[in-house]
């Protein structure tokens, strides 16, 4: 897939795993008019607003839970009529199909906002980890920024200037063509300044996705096929305490033994999930053993 820009700010938050991925891509291949989304890497799903053809790609057993709008469990609220729906004129969606998408313009209230909201059935968003990615299609012919908010926090901006103080992560071409946004959860969670899902992410009710587009009348909001997917190509390194060579979330005598085994060449560093070079000197030696012992004895 073609890469449209380098997102330097993204690297500050996400590290090397995300930097290798494209964040915004052209939705339809200009040579074939086929969607560029790679279904082979998507193994689990949480649909939010999807078309029939996209839903058919998601086997029921791979849908972790259904966050689509049914006006019973989940609703799409347009706040204070700040957006108004517009005619889609039979245009194709971001997967090249003659199916509906979200098409609204900002009205005259001087601000705008809408939210996908869980009302009567709590959702378990604790299932998200750094292997999940938020996907949606977006297009426009104006230059307005859009604030995208996951859960309770202030989210991020797509555009050139921050909307409501939400950090700008990048922009998409404003040529009335569809572009895919595929933003890893690792980036979103590191932008958060408060708990994204409140006190209990296993039983969340409230707005699980919000969009705000500023207050200029006529600003376009065109979104399509919003869903989370678990990406089988993302490798998440274990988040282990310093000195935890064995990867059991403890720093104890087993880590001392593991480090000694590596020094004596009875084992290799690849035999353990943690980093045995505790003092980061580029070599595994007795100093690393001393460092682990100091951690155990609370001297460091």
Explain this structure:
This protein is α+β, with helices and mostly antiparallel strands. The chain folds into 2 domains: 8-231, Jelly Rolls, CATH 2.60.120; 253-296, no CATH class. Helix content is 15%, strand content 27%. The protein is built from 6 helices and 13 strands. Strands 1, 2, 4, 5, 7, 11 and 13 form a 7-stranded antiparallel beta sheet that branches. Helix 5 packs antiparallel against helix 6 (286-296). It is elongated, with a radius of gyration of 23 Å.
List keywords for this structure.
6 helices, about 15% helix, about 300 residues, seven-stranded antiparallel beta sheet, alpha+beta, disordered N terminus
User: pLDDT average, as an integer?
Assistant: 89
- Taken as a percent bin, the fraction of beta residues is 25-35%
Tertiary shape: elongated
The radius of gyration is: 23 Å
Distance between the termini: 47 Å
Could you state the order of secondary-structure elements as H and E? Answer: HHEEHEEEEEEEEEHEEHH
CATH architecture of the largest domain: Sandwich
What is the highest CATH level, the class of the largest domain?
Answer: Mainly Beta
What about the largest sheet?
7 strands, antiparallel
Helicity range: 10-25%
